[in-house]
């Protein structure tokens, strides 16, 4: 058994190194430990900031992971989602429920004191999401750094690029494909829903609401008992501010429970259930549900790809002094 496990891990590490090498070749301005000389404490400081914030608020990992998705899917991983203003990405209703900004700001302020004008906000967002997964019990992932911050952030770019929770599988595949991500990446990165929480309006389209505010299940792909729990919570007078855990079983732990939930028809979003309802993705879900080690291996690969979407390097961007505004 031990030798078999060793061969699996060795094979995975070799595969991952070759994969990362191909990314490195195509992104010469990025590198592992990019700040080794210019700011040696950069990655450690971000990691410690994330850990400290998570100890105070267990919802932080889910927020930081979602922040990376919303940044990278709209004009690339350039921290444009952090910029404040009436017409920026951050102002769009699709980003209204994003969180974790204070963690990024805390890390940035500390780094500006230690290493001024050196570490990009885009790298901090990517590192914080990486560290959030580790803080929640997930795998340790090595990522390339050296991203530059974008100078443009436009609200109108948000809706055409983000994945809505009521998308069909074909719509999700198209959205991921436009970012250079495969169907496997789609299934694996959906595993981010193993942590975090969502507001009722993100999934209440699966129910019909009557004039008295009561809900009735209209989505047959959802487990009835689980649906009853959701409907009871969302019929509350405080439902507009109420959040529900994405994973009803292990909401604060990054594990493969999400996929086991899908097998029992307990995916919170329509986009979750769609992965189990289609032959193109069902077998992937079942494989990830049965083996957490495989999920962690696949996650490491797909997360690296996500963190590299549309990165800016060199003169194509800047190092912001404050993450919420351009220089």
Automatic annotation (TrEMBL):
Residues 1-28 form the signal peptide. It is found in: Secreted; Vacuole. It holds the Pfam family peroxidase. The keyword Calcium applies. It comes from the Eukaryota. It is an enzyme of class 1 (oxidoreductase). Keywords: Calcium, Disulfide bond, Heme, Hydrogen peroxide, Iron, Metal-binding, Oxidoreductase, Peroxidase, Secreted, Signal. InterPro entries: Haem_peroxidase (IPR002016), Haem_peroxidase_sf (IPR010255), Peroxidase_pln (IPR000823), Peroxidases_heam-ligand_BS (IPR019793), Secretory_peroxidase (IPR033905). Belongs to the peroxidase family. Ascorbate peroxidase subfamily. This is Peroxidase. It comes from Camelina sativa. The gene is LOC104721661.
